[in-house]
Write a structure and sequence with these properties.
With 422 residues, the chain is of the alpha/beta class. The chain contains 9 helices and 21 strands. Strand 16 (261-268), helix 5 and strand 17 (289-293) form a beta-alpha-beta unit. The chain binds S-adenosylmethionine.
Length: 422
């Protein structure tokens, strides 16, 4: 079947129409004329792979990596770098329109990566001990694509990949290991599980004048080169009395927040990450921040309730163990028992749970910054925030993951002034 690719969709597939059907093509470029093979049909949508490029898009380039098409890691190498950036902006705007329901689409600047290759400073290599393969999963499968050189790895991680490969070829890797995680710090690389020499379990990484200790297992942004700009954009001009940070990891945004606000409360559910975040704040000499290790939804629920109870006690002298109804909690928030100037949230790819957004709306922070690595779940959550009285101040994309369809977005929202507030 012959198709022409119209544009790249969120998720990275090329969109085409033929014979009344919607066809999504992997590894395509907008404008490509292709002969494709249908691999799978789901309802009215067919998923296809490229059999032949009949006429290449002007944006199509020769993918430099020998594993391209087999390795599931990079699905944008066929696009020139400018076309990658354009596609990412279009994906975000598409989600804001279709999912968040914005009629008037905002401008969305994208900050390019300083390095389009060799940028990844944290990674996970899959290991198939039976077949002696080390690398990444093949696309759409759990088969390990054996990779000896990865074009997006930072040089120190490429050297570590070679080290682990040599150990594999010498039968010196633990047979039970299924994967290896590695992170590059200021002075070397930590690999987990440890493979040779002295066990290095954690690393220090300096970003924007602050030091973060972390482990290979900890979540940390993979593109360290862009982090100073990402942090500056996420915090922008925020400052004041009270800030809350949801999903704080090892404290990437927590330290800069603690330098700008009198009091910060942060939440993270991973025990190790929470311990590192506390350690990182202590090293930075900051004592105005409390970090709780808890599920964000549970934490917000508990805090809204206890703020409500405190307010009740002050108002009516009711006992501390009174359980409050929704209306009482809301009245406490309305009466200013919880006055939050700024909330920063950076949830995982699945976005924030529905109850988290509802609780956020009850908190009524003056401003919200939402950092997201998935435009679709971001748009889903923004729709609820718009309905709840927030409006979009700005959205800026960051190309944290060149050569892949993934993109990071930083959104600033502020409370709309209602006519009866004026
Ligand atoms: C995208 S990362 C952001 C971390 C941090 N802001 C950073 O940039 O390094 C999301 C974090 O949320 C945490 N997380 C995921 N689900 C959570 C939940 N339900 N409650 C609290 N934290 C959660 C993960 O452990 C992870 O550290």
């Amino acid at each position: 079947m012959e198709v022409t690719i119209e544009r790249i969709l969120p998720g990275g597939l090329g969109l085409a129409h033929a014979g009344g059907k919607t066809i999504m093509v992997a590894l395509a470029a907008p404008g490509d004329r292709l002969r494709v093979r249908i691999e799978k049909v789901k309802g009215n949508v067919s998923f296809a792979s490229i059999e032949e490029v009949i006429e290449p898009s002007p944006n199509r380039i020769e993918p430099p990596c020998p594993y391209f098409g087999r390795c599931g890691g990079c699905d944008f190498q066929q696009l020139s770098y400018q076309a990658q950036l354009d596609a990412k902006v279009e994906m975000i705007r598409d989600c804001l329109h279709r999912i968040a329901g914005l009629e008037k689409l905002p401008e969305c600047e994208i900050v390019a990566a300083p390095n389009q290759w060799k940028y990844r400073s944290r990674t996970q290599w899959q290991y198939d001990s039976a077949r002696k393969r080390l690398g990444y999963f093949e696309s759409g499968s759990r088969r390990v694509c054996d990779v000896s050189e990865c074009a997006v790895l930072a040089p120190e991680l490429q050297a570590s990949l070679e080290l682990v490969r040599n150990l594999m070829l010498d039968n010196r890797l633990p047979m039970e290991a299924r994967d290896f995680r590695a992170v590059a710090g200021d002075k070397g690389v930590a690999i987990s599980p440890s493979v040779s020499g002295p066990k290095i379990r954690e690393m220090n990484r300096s970003i924007h004048g602050e030091t973060y200790t972390l482990r290979p297992e900890s979540f940390f942004q993979t593109n360290a080169d862009l982090l100073p700009k990402l942090i500056d954009m996420a915090l922008r001009d925020a400052q004041g009395e009270t800030a809350i940070e949801l999903y704080c990891g090892v404290g990437l945004f927590t330290i800069p927040l603690a330098r700008r606000f009198k009091q910060v409360s942060a939440v993270e559910s991973d025990r190790d990450a929470t311990a590192f975040a506390r350690k990182n704040l202590t090293r930075a000499g900051l004592s105005n921040t409390k970090i709780d290790c808890e599920d964000v939804g549970d934490w917000l629920q508990k805090n809204l309730e206890s703020a409500g109870k405190a307010k009740q006690r002050r108002r009516f002298g009711s006992p501390a163990d009174d359980s409050l109804n929704e209306g009482q909690i809301q009245s406490a928030v309305d009466a200013g028992a919880l006055q939050i100037d700024f909330v920063l949230l950076d949830p995982p790819r699945t976005g924030a749970e529905s109850r988290v957004i509802n609780q956020l709306l009850r908190l009524e922070p003056g401003r919200i910054c939402y950092v997201s690595c998935d435009p679709a779940t971001l748009a889903r959550d923004l729709k609820k925030l718009f309905t709840g009285g927030y409006s979009l101040e700005s959205i800026v994309a960051f190309d944290m993951f060149p050569q892949t369809h993934h993109v990071e977005a930083v959104v600033h929202l502020s409370q709309e002034i209602r006519s009866n507030d004026a």
